[in-house]
Amino acid sequence: MLISSSTWAQLGMDNMSNLMNGDEQHGHMIGGGTNHFSWGRDTTSKSEEDIPIGMFVWKLEERLGNIIPAEIDTMPHHYQNTNLTSGFNGQYNHLGNLGSPRLSRLFMDRNFTNDQFLFVQPYDFFYTTPNNFLFTNTKSPITNLSYHSCGSQENGEDRVRAYFATNINKKAGIGFKFDYVYGRGYYINQANSCFNGSLYGYYLGERYNMHAWFSSNHMKMGENGGIEDDTYITDPESFGQTFTSRDIPTVLSETWNRNDDQTYYLTQRYNWGLYREMEDPDSLKIEIPSDEELLKGLGDSLRTAVMADSIRLHHTVDSLREKFIAENEGEKEFVPVTSLIHTVKIRNLRHSNYAYDVPENYYTNHYYGNPDMVKDRSHAFSAKNTIGLALREGFNKWAKAGLTAFASHEYRHFTLPGVDNLGLNTREVYRENNLSVGGELSKTMGSMIHYNANGEIVVSGEDAGQFELDGKADLNLKLFKDTVQLAVHAYVKNLNPSFYYRHYHSQHTWWDNTNLDKELRTRIEGTLDIPQTKSRLRVGVENVSNYTYFATEKTPYSLEDNTKTGYSNNIAVRQASGNTQIFSAILNQNFKYGILHWDNEIAYQKTSNGDVLPLPDLSVYSNLYLIFRIAKVLRVELGADVRYFTEYYAPDYAPSIGQFTTQDSKTRIKIGNYPVCNVYANLHLKHCRLYAAVNHVNASSGNAFLAPHYPINPLNFNFGLSWNFFN
Predict the structure, then answer these.
(1) How far apart are CA 139 and CA 149, in angstroms?
(2) Backbone φ and ψ of 350, nearest 5°
């Protein structure tokens, strides 16, 4: 389903039981799609029948805590790509190593939230937010363990994940997630490690609902600045000798970026409403017996006495009828009419940049401290409270939509390095407050039309005048045995650039931009989904005024032998004057003939200003594979896929701030026009999924980069395993 749904909070735990039992009618009513209940379970042996298996998973709309039904990752198809930093369809640029910073080449898929702590944004492959976390209601405790590995002890990549969920009772559950990524790196000086631990609990009663979530993240990235000479990749034969990837020299060594993040999230609501009798189908409705049948329950002598007195007979029949109705009264359901909502989110964040061997002239500027040793830290803290009052959808036949009004207050605290009048390092503190109000109108019930429109404006504080208007709608029409969906999404956002665009201080990078204008974004996009032909077309247009971005600035200097020119580095914040337009069309078309499958994604994009917002004109992903079974129980998928994009001046990467930037025109280069091919085998047996893959099988000389000067990993063997346990 395209839109956020608040239906779940209205349905209560009785409907959750229906969903867990595989009630497709309720499942489609809530989510508009198919839900997975058994984590990929194919068969049930006799010994397993004693363990009830079934679950329902959902995500949260972060601001108001609305529940959004979700699908759990159980499918063996595409499993070989779940651990690729480049994404399922290879649509991300990144630095090569597992879990390294990344940026989508598909503009419409980029997440343009106004997150004040932008240092974690490039780690979205790993980093989880409250609105992306899966909550689970399960019939029996479930544990999922997964492991991914490639390479050797010298250059390999490993990832271990564990997820556990259990119910306390029908209304409450708890669970946790553990995720650890360690990439040594196929190229030197780029080892990275990421750790996440998340805990959650929920209670979903008739009147009171609550979700609590805590997550702690540690992300450490070794920064090598890219390789010294691209010729090692584009024309290795010119060196007259063979180099392994770890023999190739890199620009930086002993340099790291580190991000630590702790997030505390709580959303709760209290529902006022009414009880009404659940309507049974006509075939199950109880008919009230006739007067004669009611009197048959009396003894013969009593029945004779009652029938002799007409007044007594009238009162006795009424009494027997009321008793029958009371004894056979149907179940009642609670229908929420109004909800009081409270959400609080607290974040504690720290960004650090360390370097102990800085090359001479690598940085253009130096503001304080030892130029050969970098040790910069910035700290951020935020606390946001939201109060909402909702008039619920569907409490009577006239309530065709839900209406919510809300108000939010956010406090932000930042600490940056500073310099006093004597040139000594100090700490500078920035405090910001914002008060905003908004509303939401949504229709999530029914099967044909759904919509959601919401808006918010900051009425006072640092971001006063900032506003967001967002609308989504979908129309679902039956076509043969499938449903064709036409979805539309549009928004207008007038956003104050986030704090670190306005202020950032470090030994070699420094800015205080107090005159940045608000960035105005306007987008409209439509999606046509036709399951009958396995087609999906998505077309969108966006206009951005005052586009705000990071730019690399190169300053030339002469090397010691005066035969070459070197370039020092500085990072600046810029705003594009005027408007920048982006057009995007993405077609997904899949084919099937017997056991042969062919899946394709073709994306065409055009930007009106490639200097400030570079995009490849064409991106392609194609996957050709066979699916068959062995002994009717082992599902096998054998295939090969390829990802490709046309040449363009791709964003550079700045190790000093851990962000993607535009390239300097004096030294910019193009990457692309280089296909990357993988071959793989996926196996699925009962509760176990595993894969083996050889990635970059076509490794050879060429423009094998996903970011300027950061080569794609050479040919490598990958293995992955996922196992579900029910107990």
Answers:
(1) 32
(2) -145, 130
Q: What type of residue is 357?
A: D
Span 647-675, average pLDDT: 96
Give Cα separations from 48 to 22, 146, 169 (angstroms): 18, 22, 22
Q: What is the pTM of this model?
A: 0.86
Closest CA to 649 of 675, 617, 603, 677: 617
Sign of the dihedral defined by the CA atoms of residues 143, 148, 149, 155, in that order: negative
* 552 residue type, one letter: T
Give per-residue pLDDT as tens, 93-148.
999 999 999 999 999 999 887 788 899 999 999 999 999 999 999 989 999 999 99
Query: DSSP labels for 499-550?
Result: HHHHEEE-SS-EEE-TTPPPEEEEEEEEEEEEGGGTEEEEEEEEEEES-EEE
Neighbouring-strand partners of residue 388: 341, 406
Q: Which H/E stretch holds residue 325? A: helix 310-327
Looking at residue 227, its pLDDT comes to 96
Alpha helix segments (H runs only) across 450-497: none
Q: Where do the structural domains in the chain lie, given as residue ranges?
A: 7-274+334-726, 279-330
d(CA 152, CA 644): 27
Q: Does residue 274 surpass a pLDDT of 80?
A: yes
pLDDT at 12 over 70: no
Which residue from 86, 27, 96 is spatially nearest to 57, judged by alpha carbons? 27
Helix (H) or strand (E) holding 391: strand 374-391
For 82-99, how does the pLDDT look when each residue is reduced to its tens digit (9 = 90+)?
A: 999 999 999 999 999 999
CA atoms within 13 A on the CB side of 64: 31
In 184-313, which ranges are E strands? Answer: 192-204, 208-222, 255-277
Strand partners for 275: 334
All residues at 6 or more sequence positions from 80 whose CB lies less than 8 Å from its CB, including other chains: 678, 680, 682, 691, 693, 718, 720
Q: Strand runs (DSSP E) across 114-188, as ranges?
A: 135-138, 142-150, 157-167, 172-183
Euclidean distance between CA atoms 515 and 423, whole angstroms: 26
3-state secondary structure of 238: helix
d(CA 486, CA 528): 5
Q: What are the Cα distances from residue 524, in Å, to 7, 381, 478, 490? A: 26, 34, 25, 4
- The total number of residues shown for the chain amounts to 727
Angstrom distance (rounded) from CA 656 to CA 376: 10
* Residue-level pLDDT at 429: 96
Decide if 264 contacts 199 (C-beta within 8 A).
Answer: no
Number of CB atoms found within 10 A of residue 509's CB: 20
Please state, for a pLDDT cut of 70, what percent of the chain lies above it.
88
Contact 677, 696 (CB under 8 A): yes
Contact (Cβ atoms closer than 8 angstroms) between residue 485 and residue 476: yes
pLDDT > 80? residue 417: yes
Using DSSP, how many helices (H) and how many strands (E) does the chain show? 7, 35
Distance CA 249, CA 631 (A): 51
- In this predicted structure, the answer to whether residue 27 has a pLDDT above a threshold of 60 is no
DSSP-derived letter for residue 609 is -
Question: Strand, coil or helix: what is 326?
Answer: helix
Cβ distance 30 to 1 under 8 Å? no
Phi, psi of 123 (to 5 degrees): -100, 30
Which strands, in side-by-side order, build the sheet including 135-138? 67-69, 55-60, 135-138
Domain topology for 7-274+334-726? Maltoporin; Chain A (2.40.170)
- What's the whole-number mean pLDDT along residues 630-654? 96
Is residue 580 within 8 Å of 544, Cβ to Cβ?
A: yes
Query: CA 39, CA 20: separation in Å to the nearest integer?
Result: 12
Q: How many Å apart are CA 554 and CA 374, to the nearest integer?
A: 20
- Does the pLDDT value for residue 292 go beyond 90? no
